[in-house]
Amino acid sequence: MKAAASAHDDGAFAVVRLVLAAAMWAGLYAVKGPAVDGLVHGLLGLAPTSRLGAAVHFFLFDSIKIVLLLVGIIFAVTVVRSFFSVERTRALLGGRREGAGNVLAAGLGVVTPFCSCSAVPAFIGFVAAGVPLGVTLSFLIASPMVNEIALVMLLGMFGWGVAALYLASGLTLAVVAGMILGRLHLEAWVEPFVFETRLGGKVLDPSRQLTWGERLQMGVEEAGSILGRIWPYLLVGIGLGSVIHGWVPQSFFLRVAGPGQPLAVPVAVLLGIPLYSNAAGILPLVEALHAKGLAMGTTLAFMMAVVALSLPEMIILRRVLKPRLIGLYVAVVGVGILATGYLFNAVL
């Protein structure tokens, strides 16, 4: 009786802590925009229209946003993982039929609001839980490339045809690329610590039911551990994106990738790689470029390159993937993006 009462008290206290932590996280996430605006444009006096002001604002805003997302995502993934054995997780995403796990993972990536940077801890969690590498890569590709916000915005800007083709092409690219990379058995090209990650450093005893307090503590420990490993890569990646952000004028895109340019799609992809944003964040530029005369396939290839192949993302991915796998990942996804761009240009 005493043990049961103690477990109940522990669970109730853990829920209270979780609610308070979630409220604090949501509050910080809600005020990050006004706080950064006040610091950059108010206290520092940097004009929003200036290049320095835009760069500093981008760096501070995205640093806070990504750190908050990382902490929340790592914590949530770890707590969820505590309910699943390695075998159960592998069965859930691995699938019995070839490719089924890739389809499920890509679909999961669409409905998760992760950018290319914040999808990394989920990647670590899936691989550490025994999910096949190819399946996990399907998630890693789909999560930043196809999201519900971008889908709704495309629907509003360009109609059902463009939105549906964007969804279908992004999912197809994620599934096919994941299957190709998975069949190559490239686990040796993943950094060893990813496979060695455990829940809070503990090996779970399947015969014992964990308390909520233990699950939450595992989430806290895992968030600190992974964030401690990858924070330098995050800052370098975001810093690079902030320096480049806003420096290239729209006229430059029109000159090198506008109508009549036979290499417009590959040029747009190459221009997108040094930038950093999520799909929703880059869509206003996509709309502006399309309004200026860029073909739809060219603008969407540019968007996909920004969110799936950006140089800042590659810097962050280097913490979990070895250079050879990053190179192969870029090649496979790049070919898919080029094909998507030419497909859009051909049918629209």
Radius of gyration: 21 Å
Q: Could you describe the largest sheet, including whether it forms a barrel? A: none
Report the principal-axis shape: globular
Structural class: mainly alpha
Helix content: over 70%
Poorly predicted residue ranges = 199-207
- Strand runs, count: 0
How widely separated are the two ends? 69 Å
Strand percentage lies at under 5%
Order of helices and strands: HHHHHHHHHHHHHHHH
pLDDT average, as an integer? 76
Number of helices: 16
How would you briefly describe this protein structure?
This protein has 348 residues and is mostly helical.
Keywords:
single chain, 348 residues, mainly alpha, 16 helices
